[in-house]
Amino acid sequence: MNVPRAFSAMLVSAGTAILLVTIPLVQILSDRAYFAAVQDRHAIGRTTEFGAEEIAPINEAIVRFFASEMSLPDALASTGAPVQVFGDREIDHMEDVRALVRAVGSTRDLGTVLVVLGGGLAILARPRDGLRSVLNAVSRGAAATIGLLALLGAIALADFGALFTQFHLVSFTNDLWMLDPRTDNLIRIFPFGFWLEATLTLAVRCAFWSVLVLVGALTLSALARRRPEGLR
Q1: Residue range 184-209, pLDDT digits in tens
Q2: CA dihedral 35, 41, 42, 46 (to 10 degrees)
Q3: What is the rounded distance in angstroms from the CA atom of residue 44 to the CA atom of residue 33?
Q4: Domain presence at residue 81
Q5: Is 114 part of a structural domain of the chain?
Q6: How many domains are there within the chain?
Q7: What is the pTM of this model?
């Protein structure tokens, strides 16, 4: 494999892996209905003073906050949620979270660019079998994603608490994420169990799409390889 072909394949594989993780993650972070369903399963309405009707506008405000330049209090006011539901420390932490969410979105966009750029280079360099090269690279990216998910899944099942803490230590440069479950509503509405379930949901969705993409890419590559020479 020459260097340009190897380079284009690397771009496609990396972009595929990025998209298979970031697309489901962005979807979860903007899914108000999913928030409500997990909160209901964890009995937030019984363990806090916030019932479903009170939590719904808070969830909506958080989604709006992530997608806009509004402050969190302004987002809460825009949905009719109580503006004082979160304290200053929680509001500051959510600003950090929004920056992280935007970084995920930017990474997703980068994945798209890598796949398009790498695929275009592969097809331009070898028009006759460039598509098969792209499909093979896609399958490698999907396989790598499955392997990474298996590793992270094993770590999470062994000690999700340690993984959760390490994620925050790596992702944030301050200790604003260290909230008190007795008094801070952010962690009362989104408790540890919520994030455990959300992480497992993300892993399942990523795995599902990774397997689907892997099987699809391998199948299409096999079909392309079987085409008569004159049709390639």
Answers
A1: 999 999 999 999 999 999 999 999 99
A2: 100
A3: 15
A4: no
A5: yes
A6: 1
A7: 0.90
Residue 70 in any domain: the answer is no
Q: How many residues does the chain have?
A: 232
DSSP result, 122-145? HHHH-TTTHHHHHHHHHHHHHHHH
pLDDT tens, position by position, 211-227:
999 999 999 988 877 76
Distance CA 90, CA 109 (A): 29
**Would 214 be classed as within a structural domain?**
yes
| Buried residues in 178-203 as b, exposed as e (16+ CB within 10 A) | ebeeeebbbbbbbbeebebebbebbb
In angstroms, the CA 183 to CA 28 distance is: 26
**Domain span including residue 20:** 3-47+95-231
Which long-range CB contacts under 8 A does 118-126 form with residues at least 24 apart?
A: 118/7, 118/8, 118/9, 118/10, 118/11, 118/12, 118/13, 118/15, 119/8, 119/12, 121/4, 121/7, 121/8, 121/11, 122/5, 122/8, 122/9, 122/12, 125/4, 125/5, 125/8, 126/5
